[in-house]
TrEMBL record:
Residues 1-24, 463-488 are annotated as: Disordered. This is Capsule biosynthesis protein CapK. It comes from the Bacteria. Residues 464-475 have a biased composition (Low complexity). Gene3D superfamilies: N-terminal domain of ligase-like.
């Protein structure tokens, strides 16, 4: 299990042993060690809660670089509604090597003969989706908080985690940005803004062991609030990545350093917030549609009319409620086949997000993407990130849940019918955030996709508007997700 899975928030991590450090950084050089020390020991550094590392072996660094070159040179080369030639061999291999698909019998003749799968299928037993040949000794697991309320462990591998950068670099190149950070520089800072957040420092061996840090901008992770801007200025990262909630907090800090580009991931980026960030930092702000199960899927391009697909080996369909392809150009649920995570080959995987798929000059485009927006909840005189809600309920054995805040501030928690016995425990887990305010509980009747987070309070959705000291009536309904992503 990857150490990122450990719940270390709230305490300092135990010191690393030499063996643990070698496992996390197999190729670490003296320059890399100096970078890690700089990131952790800087006088304005946050309280890092965890340890992590790239885990790449020497020969794998070359493989990652070759993969990046291949992605840069190979755009998606298929037409909506017409699966490319690699799809059916991919399906056949999955049926031969993946226990879940093997149990279905013979592979289908056509892709649309295969029943789609959903997040609930993965959550029920994700191990059955891991191919037989994957070396479990190097298997990693990334925990997601869930778009639909189904907590999920996503199987991964050091090579898979490192390959995320290929698609981020592809998106950056389209904006005229070629990352050039190297030894002695900080390349990427990942931002969070949560009461509890996994934070760590690392280096990127494919970029000369440049520094990488995941930090939490919540004041609880800093010795002094002013240290946040001071630390970011000291690091001077080339790229900043985060979700809209953390990026909104970043824009409010008095940082003097401006990155070359900002990547917004995990949640839908509202145009107002994008304009605010562009004005504040004077750099491109890229809205990347990404899921932990799939990785970076697409990047928004106004001229292309939507989100342009990034992965050459990811086929996208648009399905109706019964799992059938919609008419060309029609709206429906995004389903994906393929991907670069060889630990989790996906066949017609329903993402829970909706769009139309159209042909563009540079490849297929997701038009009118309606995905995940961040939702905040108000209690005890402050706003709470929806991931704080997930963290509070994580100790309970809940398959999925929903939370809605009404205009009067009251809360309605939805639990699966077989989890209603935990209603009192769930109310107690949320009480520290919402005080004595009544938290009603009801059973969820839906079998699969649910609207996890929603609110009728203005300011609940981070859309670039000023943050409210207190909420006002409004409306925000979303299948919000704070799914993480591998290091860019």
């Amino acid at each position: 299990m990857d150490p990122r899975m450990k719940d270390g928030a709230g305490v300092r991590p135990a010191p690393e042993t030499a063996a643990q450090r070698r496992a996390r950084f197999p190729t670490l050089s003296p320059a890399g060690r100096r970078m890690l020390a700089f990131l952790r020991r800087h006088p304005h550094a946050p309280i890092y809660r965890n340890h992590s590392g790239n885990r790449l072996l020497a020969h794998e660094i070359a493989l990652v670089r070759a993969f990046e070159e291949e992605v840069a040179a190979t755009p998606p080369d298929w037409t909506p509604g017409r699966p490319p030639g690699w799809v059916m061999p991919f399906v056949a291999k999955a049926f031969a090597t993946v226990p879940f698909y093997r149990a279905l019998g013979s592979p289908p003749r056509r892709l649309d003969e295969l029943a789609p799968v959903a997040r609930a299928d993965l959550a029920a037993d994700v191990a059955r989706f891991v191919p037989d040949h994957v070396d479990t000794r190097r298997l990693l697991a990334f925990q997601t908080t869930g778009t639909t309320g189904h907590p999920l462990l996503v199987p991964s591998h050091p090579l898979v985690a490192a390959r995320y950068a290929a698609f981020h670099k592809r998106a950056l190149r389209r904006a005229g940005i070629v990352p050039n950070h190297g030894a002695g520089q900080v390349g990427v800072v990942l931002l969070g803004f949560q009461r509890r957040c996994f934070t760590y420092v690392s280096v990127s061996p494919t970029m000369g062991e440049s520094g990488l840090a995941k930090i939490n901008l919540h004041p609880a992770d800093w010795r002094h609030e002013d240290d946040r801007a001071r630390y970011l200025d000291a690091l001077a990262p080339e790229i900043i990545a985060g979700d809209p909630i953390s990026l909104r907090a970043y824009a409010a800090l008095p940082c003097r350093h401006a990155p070359r580009a900002i990547l917004s991931v995990s949640m839908a980026l509202h145009a107002g917030l994008r304009r605010l960030l562009e004005s504040r930092f004077g750099c491109p702000v890229l809205d990347i549609y990404s899921l932990n199960e799939v990785g970076p899927v697409a990047v928004h391009d106004e001229d292309a009319g939507g989100h342009l697909l990034l992965q050459p080996r990811l086929y996208v369909e648009i399905l109706d409620e019964r799992g059938r392809p919609v008419a060309p150009g029609g709206r429906g649920e995004i389903a994906v086949t393929g991907g670069f995570n060889f630990c989790l080959p996906l066949l017609r995987y329903r993402t829970g997000d909706h769009a139309a798929l159209v042909a563009g000059a540079e490849g297929p485009v997701l038009a009118g993407l309606c995905g995940r927006r961040p939702v905040r909840f108000y209690g005890r005189g402050q706003w709470w990130n929806n991931i704080d809600v997930t963290h509070a309920l994580r100790p309970l054995p809940l398959s999925h849940f929903t939370l809605h805040q009404a205009a009067d501030g009251s809360l309605l928690l939805g639990l699966a019918r077989d989890a209603m016995a935990y209603a009192a425990a769930a109310q107690g887990a949320l009480a520290p955030m919402f005080g004595e305010r009544e938290i009603a509980v009801r059973p969820i009747l839906a079998e699969d996709k649910v609207l996890q987070y929603s609110s009728d309070l203005a300011g609940a959705c981070q859309d670039g508007a000023p943050q409210h000291a207190a909420p006002a009536p409004g409306a925000c309904h979303t299948g919000a997700s704070t799914d993480g992503h591998a290091d860019p």
